[in-house]
TrEMBL record:
SUPFAM superfamilies: Oxidoreductase molybdopterin-binding domain. PROSITE patterns: TAT (PS51318). Residues 122-276 form the Oxidoreductase molybdopterin-binding domain. It is an enzyme of class 1 (oxidoreductase). Mo-molybdopterin binds at N102, Y105, E106, C159, T194, R247, S258, V259, K260. Its cofactor is Mo-molybdopterin. The gene is msrP. This is Protein-methionine-sulfoxide reductase catalytic subunit MsrP. The keyword Signal applies. Binds 1 Mo-molybdopterin (Mo-MPT) cofactor per subunit. It comes from Pseudoxanthobacter soli DSM 19599. Heterodimer of a catalytic subunit (MsrP) and a heme-binding subunit (MsrQ).
Length: 339
């Protein structure tokens, strides 16, 4: 039994409001009012409306037992060999810490969604390759993982909410998946999408979010060596709360760019409209590169809480990955690159 108590690194809402809370509050009121109006019109009471809304986000925080599942069909591929090129300036965050402090709004807005992801079914799972490619196609996740060269990389991970971790991801360079997809030369962006299934993910019943979760990169970003498709963590197949069975890790950008539980990649010549940007473009942009000198409209980005240590450290430009990625942005002076 886990007892929920505030931890040192949980920044008070008054200081740094997580992505959800702002909308959480404003849109919550709208959503609650809409549900109240709708259900009242149908003859239900306001109390029913309130409990319906409570149910959307799972009114209680207690553990939900996960149904028994077959062992992961790719388990034999782990642990993969660590790539020594990717080192850290800090200790790896212990798994019990990083796996109990996650953002995955499909399952609710708390950091404790590891208790609620049992309903995520990761097999069968397919990944669709769509849009401007030689041949659009759909591939089974296990065939895809086995076709790719797996390696382990230690990456820093910096959330826009001013906390960070260091995580040993296993996966393959996104550039390998781009090669596999054979995009047409006119494609300039890749759009990546999470599943949409309200039965698996109760958070997707909340009507005021633009589901499914969408993210995107330019082709230059997607083929940069740092852009990593993640299939495992801590030497094992990915745990559900980290975005199983396939998620992105782009460590020079704020965490919200690293989309989880991907089902579709669409190659396109139009810049994708992303989940957070369409919710609130004045706070969350397309580029979202980490920069301590550019504050979020509601809090500073100068420092970050290292989850699990109680330490607050200085944030680095591009989250410390400037040598690898700064060149991608040298001709984009007029763009809002840092939010
Ligand atoms: N589909 C989906 N992807 C997502 C999110 C989400 O809510 N849904 N949250 C993002 C945010 S805000 C962060 S910080 C990271 C969190 O990744 P982690 O839980 O592995 O630390 O996932 C990102 N990817
Ligand atoms: Mo985040």
């Amino acid at each position: 039994m886990l007892i929920k108590r505030p931890r040192r690194w949980e920044i008070p809402e008054s200081e740094a409001t997580p992505e959800a809370v702002f909308f959480g509050r404003r849109r919550f009121l709208k959503g609650a009012a809409a549900i109240a109006a709708a259900t009242t019109a149908l003859g239900a009471t306001q109390a029913d409306a309130a409990s319906l809304f409570g149910n959307l986000f799972g009114g209680d925080d207690s553990a939900k037992p996960a149904a028994p599942e077959a062992p992961d069909p790719t388990a034999d591929l782990y642990p993969a060999k660590r790539n020594p090129a990717f080192t850290l300036d800090r200790a790896v965050t212990p798994e019990p810490v990083s796996s109990t402090y996650n953002n995955f709004y499909e399952f609710g807005t708390s950091k404790g969604i590891y208790r609620d992801v049992g309903s995520l079914r990761t097999r069968p799972w397919t990944v669709e390759i769509a849009g401007m490619v030689e041949t659009p196609r759909t591939v089974g996740i296990d065939d895809l993982i086995r076709a790719m060269p797996l390696e382990e990389r230690l990456y820093r991970h910096r959330c826009v909410e001013a906390w960070s971790m260091a995580v040993p991801w296993t996966g393959f360079p996104l550039s390998k998946l781009v090669e596999y997809a054979k995009p047409l030369s006119g494609a300039t962006y890749v759009r990546m999408e999470t599943f949409l299934d309200t039965a698996m993910a109760p958070g997707q019943k909340a009507p005021f979010y633009p589901w499914p979760y969408v993210e995107g990169l330019t082709m230059a970003e997607a083929t940069n060596d740092l852009a990593f498709m993640v299939t495992g963590v801590y030497g094992k197949p990915l745990l559900k709360q980290f975005g199983a069975p396939l998620r992105l890790a782009v460590p020079w950008k704020y965490g919200f760019k690293s989309v989880k539980s991907i089902v579709r990649l669409t190659f396109t010549d139009k810049r994708p409209e992303t989940f957070w940007e369409s919710l609130q473009s004045s706070e969350y942009g397309f580029w979202a590169n980490v920069n301590p000198a550019v504050p979020h409209p509601r809090w500073s980005q100068a420092t970050e809480e290292v989850i699990g240590t109680g330490e607050r450290v200085a944030t680095q430009i591009y989250n410390g990955y400037g040598p690898e990625v700064a060149g991608l942005y040298k001709d984009l002076g007029s763009e809002r690159l840092f939010m």
